[in-house]
């Protein structure tokens, strides 16, 4: 199924996999999706304990209809294969996706796809049930993003990783998600966001914006989210309960836009079927088939958000 149209990911909560208190708290938050992290939010000494905690938390349930993911460690580490095997063998029936961080080429995604297929067969899970979300977090990943996006039918989303990305290109700032000081001629992230969005859309994937680390500044989070939402991104990572409502709002269409989109769909349907016209007027606005497609995007996101 086309991942863009399928499951809503307006807010994607990052939960450190080694912290039972945060895992418990996450169960009560109104996010569309979450991932239990085994990667950068977990200290090296805690990696193994975190695997067990994460698998147990998935099996305990209580996650409602949220999309349940686990972020494994990246493929340059010694942990990845055991992360995948332990989590999927133990809790594969209660898991929707794995997040693969720092993806630099298509081979890495194919490796994960193959390993997942073996585990699914071995433990009797439906073949292909575990999806993959690929994080684009450095220059190599961005340059290879088209191949990465086309590398596996398991892929559901491409996720921008701003912190690692900014470090990898030597961007001169320490504030993740904000414009680097000194660059006063536009949005320093426009190219990166558009590049990821194009690769995602060309392959029917969702495009997810990464975290905003000044977690107490909800206005700044909202501004940052609004930029990627305006381009067409489907959602953003949230790190703190205070960011959840803002993400759910920003990545859903406003009520007036949603109502207008439904009106366009009705008017255009009537025009083509009853009046047999391809172009009609709705008030002062001319509608044609392309207008219908635009309205469909807004209406689909609004319906998914329960408007
Ligand atoms: C997320 O993983 C990031 O690096 O921003
Ligand atoms: Mg990262």
From TrEMBL:
<dbReference type="InterPro" id="IPR040442">
    <property type="entry name" value="Pyrv_kinase-like_dom_sf"/>
</dbReference>
<feature type="binding site">
    <location>
        <position position="164"/>
    </location>
    <ligand>
        <name>Mg(2+)</name>
    </ligand>
</feature>
<dbReference type="GO" id="GO:0006107">
    <property type="term" value="P:oxaloacetate metabolic process"/>
</dbReference>
<dbReference type="InterPro" id="IPR005000">
    <property type="entry name" value="Aldolase/citrate-lyase_domain"/>
</dbReference>
<keyword id="KW-0460">Magnesium</keyword>
<protein>
    <submittedName>
        <fullName>CoA ester lyase</fullName>
    </submittedName>
</protein>
<dbReference type="GO" id="GO:0016829">
    <property type="term" value="F:lyase activity"/>
</dbReference>
<feature type="domain" description="HpcH/HpaI aldolase/citrate lyase">
    <location>
        <begin position="10"/>
        <end position="241"/>
    </location>
</feature>
<keyword id="KW-0456">Lyase</keyword>
<dbReference type="InterPro" id="IPR011206">
    <property type="entry name" value="Citrate_lyase_beta/mcl1/mcl2"/>
</dbReference>
<dbReference type="InterPro" id="IPR015813">
    <property type="entry name" value="Pyrv/PenolPyrv_kinase-like_dom"/>
</dbReference>
<dbReference type="GO" id="GO:0000287">
    <property type="term" value="F:magnesium ion binding"/>
</dbReference>
<keyword id="KW-0479">Metal-binding</keyword>
<feature type="binding site">
    <location>
        <position position="137"/>
    </location>
    <ligand>
        <name>Mg(2+)</name>
    </ligand>
</feature>
<feature type="binding site">
    <location>
        <position position="71"/>
    </location>
    <ligand>
        <name>substrate</name>
    </ligand>
</feature>
<dbReference type="Pfam" id="PF03328">
    <property type="entry name" value="HpcH_HpaI"/>
</dbReference>
<feature type="binding site">
    <location>
        <position position="137"/>
    </location>
    <ligand>
        <name>substrate</name>
    </ligand>
</feature>
């Amino acid at each position: 199924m086309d991942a863009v149209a399928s499951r809503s990911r307006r807010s994607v909560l990052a939960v450190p996999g080694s912290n039972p208190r945060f895992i418990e708290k996450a169960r009560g938050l109104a996010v569309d999706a979450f991932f239990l992290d085994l990667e950068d939010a977990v200290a090296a000494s805690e990696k193994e304990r975190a695997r067990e905690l994460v698998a147990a938390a998935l099996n305990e349930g209580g996650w409602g209809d949220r999309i349940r993911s686990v972020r494994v460690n990246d493929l340059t580490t010694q942990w990845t294969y055991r992360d995948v095997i332990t989590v999927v063998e133990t809790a594969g029936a209660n898991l929707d996706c794995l997040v693969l961080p720092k993806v630099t080429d298509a081979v890495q995604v194919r490796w994960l796809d193959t390993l997942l297929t073996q585990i699914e067969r071995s433990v009797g899970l439906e073949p292909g049930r575990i999806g993959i979300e690929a994080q684009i977090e450095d220059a190599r990943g961005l340059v290879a993003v088209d191949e990465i996006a086309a590398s596996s039918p398991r892929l559901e989303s491409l996720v921008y990783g701003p912190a690692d990305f900014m470090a990898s290109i030597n961007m001169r700032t320490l504030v993740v998600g904000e414009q680097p000081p000194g660059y006063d001629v536009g949005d320093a992230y426009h190219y990166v966001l558009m590049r990821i969005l194009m690769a995602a859309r060309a392959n029917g994937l969702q495009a997810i914006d990464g975290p905003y680390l000044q977690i107490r500044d909800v206005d700044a989070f909202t501004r940052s989210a609004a930029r990627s939402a305006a381009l067409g991104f489907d959602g953003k990572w949230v790190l703190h309960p205070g960011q959840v409502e803002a993400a759910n709002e920003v990545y859903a269409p406003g009520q007036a836009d949603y109502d207008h989109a439904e009106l366009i769909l009705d008017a255009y349907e009537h025009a083509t079927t009853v009046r047999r016209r391809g172009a009609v007027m709705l008030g002062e606005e001319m509608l044609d088939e392309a207008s219908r497609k635009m309205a469909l995007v807004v209406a689909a996101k609004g319906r998914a958000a329960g408007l």
